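ok trying this again, last paste got cut off
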Amino acid sequence: MHLDWLESYLSRMEKCPLCSGTDWRLLYPLGVLRVHRCKTCSMMFLNPYLSPQGMEKIFSSPELLTKVSAFFADYCGEETWITPRTRQAYEKVLDEALRHAPQRGKLMDIGCGQGAFLKVAKDQGWEPFGIEPNCSKAAELENEHGIKIFQEDFLKAVVPENEYEVVSSWDFIEHLPDPSGLVKRARAMLKQGGLFLVATPNHRSFLDWSAMLAWRLSFEKFTYALSKLYTVDHTLYFTDATLCELLRRDGFEILGKVKVNTDLSRYAMGPAFRLAAEALLGASSLLGLQNRVIVIARNS
């Protein structure tokens, strides 16, 4: 992975982003990327990590995002906006949320991307809103579906408090050096008893263990598989345990977890690699070790 062009955007982590500890060990040396694990709470993170300015730079440019990883070549394509597997995952989470919510109401999706989750939520009877600084579908979503998108940076925006029945965050928290800041802002937006839905890659998965085993059996020479799981655009690497611990620390009650696998149809890859990845994900489903987790938590 050639990332020399991003080195000027790298920053140092001075403390663990979960427990604020300063005692950690190097887990995976992947060139300029170095994955560490906190010895106190087991949180995994990059150090150095890509600064917010660097994140903004790559996510505002499909070309730069593809340069970070060729997997992203089709990620924002029109034809892959809502795939059947992605819709199924969204519906599963919304059904689970409805078990704990008194009624459907206002739902805010933080870092909503191009609004895929919001469209599914609208179809299911929720009143959805989104916040995303680079949403190219904002006008379409509002004009055709009645979904309002606030084109702002969530961490800098003035947001209403005690307003929403549900706040969701799909694939956003792992990009942040301070995840607690996101969690606290989300909690402030929720009504008492409101739900926070947080989705992120799960690094206690069969896919991760397979990549780690291949690396160890090669005497730490084979890093290809690990380099696809630990990338510069992700600062934090959660397991379901560390994500739940973060939410508890900031005042949430954990109600449940939904585990799913990555929808590979959203990513560009060769047929042989896709076949191998699908086989590993199939095994992970059988073992209950899927590579994505969505935690459902209540503002208590």
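PB: full thing came through this time. The radius of gyration is 19 Å.
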